[in-house]
Design brief:
Arc Repressor Mutant, subunit A, single chain, 8-stranded antiparallel sheet, 12 strands, 4-stranded antiparallel sheet, alpha+beta, Jelly Rolls
């Protein structure tokens, strides 16, 4: 882990949180940074690909802030009967995976966690919370992380109720590019391995329809599946381009939201992409 990790005399692997997540350091003044960097440490766990049971891996305790993802990608699935929806979480996300989903409500659900890429989580326990209280801006930044995740879930819900699977796919991939995209000369890489089943659970569609729509988008040279499971986006970020697709997406066998869907499409605004990502398509064309 380089400078982000340390090992204490008891053999417990830990991380310097501000090294593992440099964006958190941005909220601190320069004269605060050095002390905070060395003071804010947390135990860390490494997860291998596969199923994960948080309650077995992390003991909940009073005053526990949560778990900060510093590396890797995880999938959280919520199951109600035969229906399954999914959420992807990755570096920068603040989780409380031991909290019972649906606790205290009449309709129950199950939650399943899967590790898609080897991951590392920093456990922000009571001790971390006590030290972090010395820097209110840092506490605010952590709260902002939780709120940002809720905003992402709202955007995912909007994507799921948008008419047209191809449109939903483009929204999903560019939403992921906004968070984890890597720019290169021929487009933007989304380095997240996803099966067609998982993609369907992310956008509210069935696997066969997802497979068919992905083939169409690949024929149109808008996306390409990469060896190893990632994706290359070679078109432009969704905005006016999506409006132009609406006429060819109206035959959608998986869309079940009735008259609400067109309003969702019309109200969609493209994510505020990093400048390097939002201009990558133009740059790629210039280099071609």
């Amino acid at each position: 882990m380089g400078t982000a990790s340390r090992r204490n005399s008891g053999g417990i692997v830990g991380v310097r949180v501000l090294d593992a997540d440099p964006d958190l350091a941005d909220v601190l003044d320069e004269d605060e940074l050095e002390e905070a960097r060395y003071s804010l440490t947390a135990p860390a766990i490494t997860l291998s690909k596969g199923d994960w049971c948080p309650r077995q891996a992390i003991a909940d305790s009073e005053g526990h802030v949560g778990v900060l993802v510093t590396e890797g990608t995880l999938c959280r699935e919520v199951v109600i009967g035969d229906s399954v929806c999914a959420e992807l979480v990755g570096p920068g996300d603040l989780l409380r995976p031991w909290d019972a989903a649906g606790a205290g409500v009449l309709m129950s659900c199950d939650v399943r966690w899967h590790v898609l890429e080897d991951a590392r989580l920093a456990i922000l326990g009571r001790g971390f919370a006590t030290v972090a209280a010395r820097w209110p801006a840092l506490t605010s930044a952590l709260v902002s992380r939780a709120v940002s995740r809720s905003h992402g879930l709202a955007l995912s819900a909007t994507i799921s109720c948008t008419t047209g699977i191809e449109t939903r796919l483009l929204m999903l991939f560019w939403h992921m590019a906004d968070r984890w995209g890597r720019v290169r000369s021929d487009g933007v890489v989304v380095p997240v391995p996803m099966t067609h089943v998982l993609i369907g659970r992310l956008i509210g569609a069935r696997r066969p329809s997802v497979s068919t729509a992905l083939k169409r988008l690949e024929r149109e040279a808008l996306i390409t599946r990469l060896p190893g499971g990632g994706w290359l986006l070679t078109g432009d970020p969704p905005s006016a381009a999506l409006q132009g697709r609406r006429h060819c997406d109206d035959a959608d066998p998986d869309h079940t939201n009735g008259t609400n869907a067109p309003a969702a499409t019309a109200g969609y605004r493209a994510p505020s992409l990093p400048r390097s990502v939002s201009t990558s398509a133009a740059a790629a064309r210039a280099l071609a």
